[in-house]
Design brief:
Distance between the termini: 58 Å
Mean pLDDT: 93
Oligomer: single chain
Structural class: mainly alpha
Number of strands: 0
Length: about 240
C-alpha cells in the first residue's frame, strides 16, 4: 500500500497554534515558579488574572483543533491517519495522568486537555459532515448547556468528564467535554465556512517574521509533553542556585 500523502499545511493556522503554545508555556512557567516559591504568592486557581488566561489558552487551542478538523474533512482524511493520531493523543493523556499522580497525588489529572481532546476529536469527526449551518448552533448549545444542566450525579471522577458538575473537581487540569466540545465545534464550523467562502484568510501567505511560530505550531503534542518537564527542571535548578 502506498504511503499516505501529508495533508497540506496552512501556515496561518500553524502560527496561531504556535502562539497558543508559547502562551501556554509562559503560563506553566509562571505556575512552576509560583509552586517553588520563586514568585510572590499567586493564586492560579481563583485569581481572574490567571483563570481567564487559562480559559483563553484552552479556547485558542480548541478553536485551532476544530479548524484543523475542517481541513482534514475537506482533504478526505482517512480513518487510518485519524486513529493513529488519536492513539498518540490518548497515550499521552495516560502519561499525563500518571505523571500528575506522582507530583499531585491529591489533585492528579483524570480528565485534562489531552483527555478532552481525545473524546472531542471523535465527536467532531463524526459531526463534521453537518456543515457550518448546524455545527455553529450545536457549538453554542454545547457551551451553554453546563450553565443550565448540572447534577450531583456527575460530581465524581467517573462522570465529571461530562462537565455537568455542580462544582469543579479538585484537579490540576480539567477540560470536560461540555462546554469545551462547543469551542471545538465552533472552530470546526468557522474553518469550514472560511474554506468555502474566504479561503484566503486561512491559505494566505504568512509574514516572514512569524515563520518560527508556524514551525512550532506543527508539533503541538510533542511540545506539550516536553515543555513542562523542561520548565520544571529549570525551576528546580533556579531554586538550588538561589
Amino acid at each position: 500500500m502506498p504511503a499516505m500523502p501529508p495533508l497540506h499545511r496552512y501556515e496561518r493556522l500553524d502560527a496561531l497554534r504556535g502562539l497558543a503554545m508559547l502562551w501556554m508555556a509562559a503560563f506553566h512557567f509562571s505556575f512552576d515558579l509560583n509552586f517553588y516559591k520563586l514568585l510572590p504568592p499567586q493564586n492560579f486557581y481563583n485569581d481572574p488574572f490567571w483563570t481567564l488566561q487559562r480559559t483563553a489558552i484552552v479556547s485558542l487551542f480548541l478553536l485551532c483543533a476544530g479548524a484543523s478538523q475542517a481541513l482534514a474533512h475537506e482533504a478526505g482524511q482517512g480513518a487510518r491517519r485519524f486513529w493513529r493520531r488519536w492513539a498518540q493523543i490518548a497515550a499521552c493523556a495516560l502519561l499525563v495522568s500518571a505523571g500528575s499522580w506522582f507530583m499531585f497525588p491529591r489533585s492528579w489529572i483524570s480528565f485534562g486537555v489531552l483527555h478532552g481532546m481525545a473524546v472531542m476529536l471523535i465527536l467532531a469527526r463524526a459531526l463534521s459532515p453537518l456543515g457550518p449551518r448546524w455545527l455553529a448552533p450545536l457549538g453554542v448549545a454545547a457551551v451553554l448547556l453546563p450553565r443550565f444542566v448540572q447534577s450531583p450525579l456527575f460530581d465524581n471522577r467517573w462522570l465529571n468528564w461530562t462537565g455537568l458538575v455542580t462544582h469543579k473537581p479538585v484537579t490540576e487540569d480539567y477540560v470536560p467535554v461540555l462546554p469545551w466540545l462547543g469551542v471545538m465545534l465552533i472552530g470546526l464550523a468557522l474553518g469550514q465556512w472560511l474554506l468555502a467562502h474566504r479561503r484566503e484568510v486561512m491559505a494566505g501567505p504568512l509574514p516572514r517574521g512569524l515563520a518560527p511560530l508556524a514551525v512550532l505550531g506543527r508539533w503541538p503534542l510533542s511540545f506539550y509533553m516536553v515543555h513542562q518537564p523542561v520548565l520544571i527542571g529549570l525551576t528546580v535548578a533556579a531554586t538550588m542556585l538561589r
